[in-house]
Write a structure and sequence with these properties.
Layout: E1 2-4, E2 25-30, E3 35-40, E4 60-63, E5 66-67, E6 75-76, E7 82-91, E8 97-107, E9 109-114, E10 117-122, E11 152-157, H1 158-161, E12 168-177, E13 187-196, E14 218-219, E15 223-227, E16 239-246, E17 252-253, E18 261-270, E19 281-287, E20 296-298, E21 301-304, E22 306-310, H2 320-329, E23 338-345, E24 348-357, E25 381-385, E26 395-402, E27 409-416, H3 424-441, H4 459-471, E28 482-486, E29 495-497, H5 522-529, H6 540-544, H7 548-562, H8 568-582, H9 586-592, H10 610-631, E30 650-655, E31 663-668, E32 675-681, E33 687-694, E34 697-699, E35 702-707, H11 709-712, E36 718-726, E37 729-738
Parallel strand pairs: 5-6, 15-23
Antiparallel strand pairs: 1-10, 2-13, 3-4, 3-7, 7-12, 8-11, 8-13, 9-10, 9-12, 14-17, 15-16, 16-18, 18-19, 19-22, 20-21, 22-24, 23-24, 25-27, 25-28, 26-27, 28-29, 30-31, 31-35, 32-33, 32-36, 34-35, 36-37
């Protein structure tokens, strides 16, 4: 969580400060590799350690950064809760400086002070409140530069710093806190960079990765400017900000009038794996002055109040999500509408973003009936299969039907009504519908024309969902960001697949599991290639392809779409059209984000120019379409899937899940075993809990193990894998959610 504060000196800057700057060039006043005073935080430093008047002469000196020797440290230090840094710098003439930047590359949290005034913090505590040496960050945060990303940037205009900095000696003091004392890494690299209005060199050169802020430009795209008024942009809870949109025929000027929207919004960070990228995603909510929701048309999209800014980063074409949503919108009942824009937040130019409709129930989005408090069958529902993260998570585990290799049940999440709003009756109703569908799918009557599985779902929506995910060879397809919606009974009551979401790793932009090659079906290959991944494809998809009539219908549907939406000519024209939309801003985007020619996880191919990225995408799409032409006729009944439960551990259950303090584990075995091993790992594969249990408590046919709060108290909030094993046979791996 990133916070920017200047204590009582915080100024609420005007948007017009984006223009009229007289910066000639940038120089490093302080570099991470300079010599700093430092104090190892295994105990508290003196209370006044960050004040300008403090004397650090009894502290150690060393070259920054300070850490555990993981390739980004100038001084290796011992394991610690925290490290405290001080660096003096001289300013001879303040009038030569227009702006300062703090470039922060850290692991895991920090607070920065300028001459005793807090100016920035990230991932820890409340702005303006001192942080103890052993306070824990909100979450594990990795440094950026070692993975090819840019540091976090904090911008300070003259009105922000002029009353703090003096001509003569000044002090930058920084506290860096580790996530856990047992953490394997700690990083503390900071640069204090000045924007000078003189061509003369005064300080040091900037680092090679440094990208100057971009201001005062013209664009054919809408320009969106957000001012958070000094507040943090948090995760999961929106903060109030101001947003202005410059949008007109012809060129838009970054210093132009807000002629499309000028008002309040709520804004928060968004994204899962994409949150690792330096170019962050955001969710916004347009608001009235009193904070209530404001439904408006944004850039020609129908009225609503919930929107998403997607920042393409590892996708160097910048168009993969727009491409997928547009194709899907031509074949499916609904797909999110999109508009490209250029985004500026707090005077920091962030490049090309995709303004996207957020998936929600609405007559212009997922058009199902709203909650009917009197008749649950007349309520529409939206369900998703996705990562289990965030605050508002709720749903249920699939019953007896599991992923292809039998080790993981699927978790279905409530999306509408929301988990914190759904009633017990509504939850029971939609769970029952899914249970009935799964049971029917694996029953003897599943192919019956009158009562079989096809009476429960919209087959055309399955076909269209299948084609867009397979065209993209979407490594996340079917198992993540997968939405389904159920109509009210009076509207047919059946389940439909869609809308689609999140294709930034599709279209040959992933180098793992199904990869970026031309050949292969994601729905059938992923369970074999990545059987141990914590997010698996529901077994439904294997079963669908045991229905001969389903396969024949899919082949005919492909023939129709291939002559229309999926023709190579149409797909190429769409790529060209999207590329033309962003052409005036592409160079500016990559000036801000210097990623061309560099590998960014999980790139399948890397090219030196944006034009090469686009040309490769077009060539890949042509080859992929031809491969699908050749292989769709070869699809046949899949009779290879046979699920045999373990003969050691049968039907393991974990409840409650999610849990807070106490977790109950229940399972059956065919024989008596004297002990069982339990291992819990995080999503990076790191062990966080291991224990061998003996003298197991047996209740009838079930064994029961209780993990009480004395065993779970060191587990931080988040998602984990839990694995049972007997006699070194590992069975029962499943996702586990720890709450506060």
């Amino acid at each position: 969580m990133k916070q920017f504060i200047l204590s009582s000196f915080l100024s609420i800057f005007a948007y017009v400060t984006l223009v009229g700057q007289t910066i000639d060039h940038w120089e490093s006043v302080i570099s991470a590799g300079d010599e700093w005073h430092y104090f190892i935080g295994n105990e508290a430093p003196p209370q006044e350690w960050f004040e300008k008047s403090f004397d650090p002469s009894n502290w150690n000196k060393g070259m920054g950064g300070f850490g555990y020797g993981d390739n980004d440290d100038g001084t290796i230090i011992e394991t610690t809760y925290s490290v405290f840094l001080r660096k003096t710098f001289e300013i001879a003439d303040k009038s030569l400086i227009e702006k300062f930047l703090l470039e922060a590359d850290y692991d895991d949290a920090f607070v920065a002070y300028l001459n005793g005034v807090e100016i920035a913090r990230s991932n820890i505590g409340i702005a303006g409140t001192p942080v103890a040496f052993d306070d824990l960050p909100f979450t594990d945060h990795e440094a950026s530069l070692t993975s090819g990303n840019l540091p976090e940037r904090f911008t300070f205009h003259k009105s922000d710093w002029e009353s703090i900095i003096v001509e003569g000696e000044n002090v930058l003091a920084i506290q860096v806190n580790n996530y856990l004392i047992s953490s394997s890494d700690l990083s503390s690299n900071f640069w204090w960079i000045a924007g000078l209005n003189t061509p003369n060199q005064i300080f040091q050169n900037t680092p090679s990765w440094f990208v100057p802020p971009i201001t005062g430009f013209e664009s054919e795209l809408p320009i969106i400017i957000i001012n958070t008024l000094g507040s943090v942009i948090p995760e999961e809870t929106k903060t109030t900000a101001e947003m202005g949109i410059i949008h007109q025929a012809g060129l838009n000027h970054s210093d132009g009038e807000f002629n499309h929207f000028d008002g309040k919004i709520g804004i928060e960070l968004r994204g899962s794996s994409s949150s690792w990228f330096a170019k962050t995603g955001y969710s916004i909510e347009t608001r009235n002055e009193d904070g209530s929701n404001l439904n408006i048309e944004l850039l020609g999209m129908p009225k609503e109040n919930d929107w998403v800014f997607h920042g393409p980063y590892s996708d160097k074409t910048l168009i993969r999500n727009a491409l997928a949503y547009t194709i899907a919108g031509n074949t499916m009942e609904y797909a999110p509408r999109v508009r490209f824009c250029e985004l500026i937040i707090n005077n920091d130019y962030l490049g090309i973003y995709l303004l996207t409709e957020k998936i929600k129930r609405d007559k212009n989005r997922v058009d199902v009936d709203p909650v009917n408090i009197d008749t649950v069958s007349q309520t529409g529902f939206i369900i998703k299969v996705d990562k289990i993260s965030g605050e508002n998570v709720g749903g249920w585990w699939s019953d007896e039907r599991v992923s292809k290799h039998g080790w993981l049940n699927n978790f279905y999440q409530y999306h509408y009504p929301k988990p914190d709003q759904i009633t017990d009756e509504q939850a029971a109703y939609i769970r029952s519908y899914f249970f009935d569908f799964e049971n029917l799918l694996f029953s003897d009557d599943w192919l019956d024309e009158d009562i079989g599985w096809k009476t429960k779902v919209d087959i055309a929506s399955i076909y269209n969902f299948f084609f867009i995910n397979e065209l993209a060879k979407n490594v996340d397809g079917y198992r993540l960001s997968t939405y389904m919606f159920k109509e009210a009974e009076e509207d047919g009551g059946i389940l439909k697949f869609g809308p689609v979401w999140d294709f930034n790793l599709g279209f040959a932009n992933a180098d793992y599991c199904t990869g970026g090659g031309i050949s292969g079906w994601v729905f059938s290959d992923f369970p074999d290639l990545c059987w141990d991944d914590g997010s698996q494809i529901p077994i439904w998809w294997q079963r669908f392809f045991e229905d001969e009539a389903f396969i024949e219908g899919l082949k005919m549907h492909w023939e129709t779409l291939r002559s229309e939406t999926y023709s190579t000519e149409n797909v190429w024209q769409l790529v060209d059209s999207l590329n033309t939309d962003i052409s005036s801003a592409v160079d500016r985007n990559f000036d801000r984000w210097n990623v061309l020619g560099n590998y960014l996880w999980p790139n399948y191919r890397v090219f030196d120019t944006h034009a090469e990225e686009i040309n490769y995408l077009k060539d890949w799409l042509e080859d992929r379409l031809e491969w699908m032409d050749q292989n769709i006729p070869l699809l046949k009944l899949d009779t290879t899937f046979v699920y045999t439960p373990s003969q050691a551990i049968i039907n393991p259950k974990y409840y409650p899940n999610p849990f807070s303090d106490i977790l109950q584990i229940q399972f059956q075995t065919e024989d008596h075993f004297p002990f069982i091993d339990i291992r819990i790992t995080d999503f990076m594969g790191r062990n966080v809990f291991t224990k061998k249990f003996s003298e197991l408590n047996r209740n009838g046919i079930y064994y029961n193990i209780l993990l009480d709060e004395s065993l779970t108290q060191n587990l931080a909030k988040g998602a984990y894998f839990i694995q049972l094993s007997i006699n070194e046979e590992e069975i029962g791996k499943q996702v586990l959610i720890k709450l506060e």
